[in-house]
Amino acid sequence: EIVLTQSPATLSLSPGERATLSCRASQSVSSYLAWYQQKPGQAPRLLIYDASNRATGIPARFSGSGSGTDFTLTISSLEPEDFAVYYCQQRSNLFTFGPGTKVDIK
Amino acid sequence: QITLKESGPTLVKPTQTLTLTCTFSGFSLSTSGVGVGWIRQPPGKALEWLALIYWNDDKRYSPSLKSRLTITKDTSKNQVVLTMTNMDPVDTATYYCAHFSIAADGWGFDPWGQGTLVTVSS
Question: Can you tell me whether residue B67 is helix, strand or coil?
């Protein structure tokens, strides 16, 4: 089973700042990695697939990079609606989610 | 527009079997590359993938829960059913179903249903 770890667990930032979230896989997942955003009381929303491709309707301030075992989600300038929990997910071997990174307001 | 909605009991007793139904619209589960997955989330915790069924009836299960899970589909009714046996209080969670597709223009669990909270307690 492929295990995903995310860091940091919590990221405290102010609106307008840049957020950099990390996801690491226990073995290579090639580029088969996605990112999701979840706000309190809501279902997750797909942001990024194939490590770097934005899903339909996702703003350009969200970008993803990486391949193999190390991946990054970057939010270039945080908007108030971006404070949420972010999960990475792989589909290289079945499916697994990471433990999440909470981006909260500093 | 794709929508999904989960239904089932909100409370089950330990050792009982949970049966959840995902009713969807806006897509067909007979279309190549399409699937429906189940994911759960205990209160305040992370997402956990459970199972997925593809358009061709191929089924995939989480290795840690495989012995307890069964996923089936009824294409004519636009429904996917998940059963989980021998429920335990640690299975208390919000259970989500989600549309899954692998296509030239992308893949992922998108969109998701609203989720249904299942509590396991005697």
Answer: helix
Which stretches in chain B have pLDDT values below 50? Answer: none
Check if A64 contacts B (Cβ < 8 Å): no
CB of A106 closer than 8 Å to CB of A15: no
**Cross-chain CB nearest to B107 (options A43, A91, A94):** A91
* Cα dihedral B24/A54/A106/A7 (nearest 10): 90
Residue B83's pLDDT is 98
Count of Cβ atoms closer than 10 Å to residue A70 Cβ = 13
The predicted structure's pLDDT at residue A66? 98
Q: In what order do the strands lie in the sheet with B69-74?
A: B3-7, B18-25, B79-84, B69-74
* Positions of chain A with pLDDT under 70: none
* β-bridge partners, B116: B95
| Whether A98 contacts chain B with CB within 8 A | yes
- Amino acid B113: pLDDT: 98
- Is the CB of residue B61 less than 8 Å from the CB of residue B50? yes
Q: Does B48 touch chain A (CB under 8 A)?
A: yes
Helix, strand, or coil (residue B117): strand
